[in-house]
Amino acid sequence: GLVLTHKSDEVDRWTQYAQETGRLQDLMIVAPGNRWKFNFLAYQFLRAGDGAGHTENTVNAFMNVLESRYRGGRRQTQEAYWTDGARRLLRHSLDALLLAGEPVTMDNILELLRSLPYPDRQTGTPQYRPDSFCEHCLRTAADQKLTAFFEREFSAPGAERQNAGIISTLTNMADPFMSGPVRDLFCSANTSFVPEFSRAGVIIVLALPVLEWEDAGRTAQLLFKYIWQQAMLRRQGLPRGERPVFLWADEAQVFMTDF
Questions:
Q1: Residue 194: phi, psi to the nearest 5?
Q2: Residue 115 per-residue DSSP state
Q3: CB-based contacts of 16, cutoff 8 Å, min separation 6
Q4: Mean pLDDT score of the chain
Q5: Half-sphere exposure of 204 toward its Cβ, with a 13 Å CA cutoff?
Q6: What is the pTM of this model?
Q7: Sheet holding 247-249, edge to edge
Q8: Spatial distance between the Cα atoms of 31 and 13, rounded to a whole number of angstroms
Q9: Which of 19, 90, 142, 257 gets the highest tally of CB atoms within 10 A of its CB?
């Protein structure tokens, strides 16, 4: 199963449960400094199932996690234009990384955004800064549609102000994933566990109690909860060798989302 933590003594309680029932070997404590890491972006491309490998599904996961951070639902509708632009930019950025063979990480997404092309003031032709990571990805990917988006559409003359708003929206969205336990546990290049471990009997405890870690702990747990729920719902029946699963959340209202 999956255990979300609100109070600081939750991890000790579940460790005691596991000890009393002979399940210590099945207990996985996910906490900063431990060896358990999960790259949620790369997982969307590598997981099993027909929907794996589709960039749009990864973008949807990213956006759903972001929206779930806002208590009471989605953000204001007047932000829809910028959010839609950010979603489109993220989708093309992920495709650029994938086709260039670069690791799909938050660090690489932001590095690509920092090195986007811009129009020459005199000729209007797209220009890149020296050692542009975006240029490297596009040249390596060698995809005409992808290059056209970044060089002809996104860096078109006169679109600088609009594009600056879209970039700012996307980087602001990514900010919660770029520091603290979220980055350490769920945005590094390495993956040492996946949600499907629960289906084999592992009890995953997210040791980021909200009363200790506050919004950073809540964001990290919401991120993994969303992906874990999807992974459990994809299972059809109970395959041989797998087990029923549970989701435990004391003070569950803290972790409730539309999904």
A1: -135, 160
A2: T
A3: none
A4: 87
A5: 25
A6: 0.82
A7: 27-30, 203-206, 2-4, 247-249
A8: 16
A9: 90
Task: State how far the alpha carbon of 245 is from the alpha carbons of 100, 192, 197, 233, 248, in Å.
Answer: 38, 20, 10, 10, 10
Q: What is d(CA 157, CA 120) in angstroms, rounded to the nearest whole number?
A: 8
Burial of 45 (0-12, 13-18, 19+ CB in 10 A): middle
Enter the tokens of residue 159.
């679109």
CA distance 210 to 45: 30
Residue with tokens 């699963």: 245
Give the DSSP H/E element, type plus range, for residue 43: helix 40-46
d(CA 173, CA 66): 7
CB half-sphere exposure, 107, CA atoms < 13 A: 12
Assigned token pair, 91? 């989708």
At residue 249, the 3 state secondary structure works out as: strand
Interacting residues of 231 by C-beta distance below 8 A, sequence separation 6+? 47, 194, 195, 196, 199
pLDDT in tens, 132-147: 999 999 999 999 999 9
Contacts of 214 by beta carbon, 8 Å cutoff, 6+ apart: none
Are 116 and 155 in contact, with CB atoms under 8 Å apart? yes
Looking only at the bridges linking them, the beta strands covering 247-249 and 2-4 are parallel
Q: Each residue of 54-87: b (16+ CB within 10 Å) or e? A: ebebbbbbbbbbbbbeeeeeeeeeeeeebbebbb
Q: How many CB atoms lie within 10 A of CB 22?
A: 8
Cα separation, 74 vs 119, whole angstroms: 34
Task: Name the token pair of 195.
Answer: 């949600």
Residue identified by tokens 């000790």 is 12
Residue 54 has pLDDT above 60, yes or no: yes
